[in-house]
Design goal:
single chain; mainly alpha; two-stranded parallel sheet; 14 helices; 2 strands
């Protein structure tokens, strides 16, 4: 099949349209602001997973551990007297980055099966820890009493989700640009090289394990920021943020959008959560049945996710869209 060629200017124009369309939902879909805010946060979480899985090739199904830790950190900070939003994000980023780097020494050195078991074990460990520390985390009832201060001292979080939408949009855009910059740097190119052929990178003297540890650290930090964003905008933290189900769901979202592609996480989150919301309204009792059929059809028809399908139609200057 002859591919339609897209030059770099057209790609930049499409990206601008994407972000403008996302921003315009503030005016066009005011009744859906809460849902769209959660889609953006989930998209950021999927981007974090993509750095580890799609770009570095680190098989992990326990990334909800970092998402939940970021959420609990931001929530606890606000509950115990410091509700300034940006401080919560920075705390989640720093702590999750440090934790991710320490854990990377266990995860990077093993085989894929070992990584699977370790990441699942870490996720279950933190889930049980949060469940048992009821006086601090609220246990199964969740962390309540999270009181956020106004953003920049001026914009208070409201019931309609207007402040949460704008705040989340700005943070997600900034984090996306940071990830984009990282992936286009020599470090990002090395990650692609490791993903495609680890032995060749070792042969040319690249410090493969050290680069993978940094990638996992970066990925954990962004997952922590996504979790902190969700805690701040909903002002509640529940045990499900640390659950294995959350890890599995974000993996489905990423595969749906397309792994190893810059917009894969965002597109996957947009598609999955929109369809999820539609089926919940369409058939509240059996919505999971319809969602399962949808996922099976997408995997059978669209190999490589939505962006995988687009890559077979469009040629983007020799690069993946």
């Amino acid at each position: 099949m002859t591919k339609l060629n897209l030059n770099p200017r057209q790609i930049v124009a499409l990206e601008v349209v994407f972000w403008l369309a996302l921003a315009s939902t503030y005016f066009l879909l005011p009744e859906k602001l809460v849902l769209i805010t959660q889609i953006m946060i989930t998209g950021l979480f999927a981007i974090a997973l993509d750095i580890a899985l799609g770009y570095a090739g680190i098989l992990t199904v326990g990334h909800a551990a970092f998402f939940g830790i970021g959420a609990y950190l931001a929530g606890l900070l606000a509950k115990y007297g410091w509700g300034e939003p940006f401080s919560g994000l920075v705390l989640a980023l720093v702590v999750c980055a440090m934790l991710g780097y320490l854990l990377s020494y266990l995860i990077v050195r093993g085989s894929d099966l070992t990584r699977l078991m370790i990441t699942i074990g870490v996720c279950v460990l933190f889930f049980e820890l949060a469940n048992r520390l009821t006086p601090i985390t609220g246990g199964a009832d969740g962390l309540q009493g999270v009181d956020m201060w106004p953003v920049l001292g001026q914009f208070r979080f409201d019931l309609w989700g207007k402040t949460a939408f704008i705040y989340t949009f700005c943070i997600v855009l900034l984090m996306f640009l940071a990830v984009r910059l990282m992936l286009k740097s020599p470090f990002g190119l090395v990650l692609r090289g490791i993903h495609d052929n680890r032995r060749r990178m070792l042969a040319i003297g690249s410090p493969v394990d050290a680069r993978l540890r940094l990638a996992y650290c970066f990925s954990a930090a962004i997952a922590g920021v996504a979790g902190a964003l969700l805690a701040q905008t909903t002002q509640f933290v529940g045990l499900e943020m640390l659950s294995f189900n959350r890890s599995a769901e974000i993996l489905i979202i990423l595969i749906l959008g397309g792994t190893g592609r810059l917009y894969g996480g965002l597109i996957g989150a947009l598609l999955y959560m929109t369809v999820h919301d539609f089926f919940s309204d369409f058939d509240p009792k059996f919505w999971q049945f319809w969602l399962g059929i949808f996922l099976i059809l997408v995997v059978m028809i669209g190999r490589g996710g939505v962006l995988g399908v687009l890559s077979r139609v469009f040629k983007v200057g020799g690069q993946r869209p």
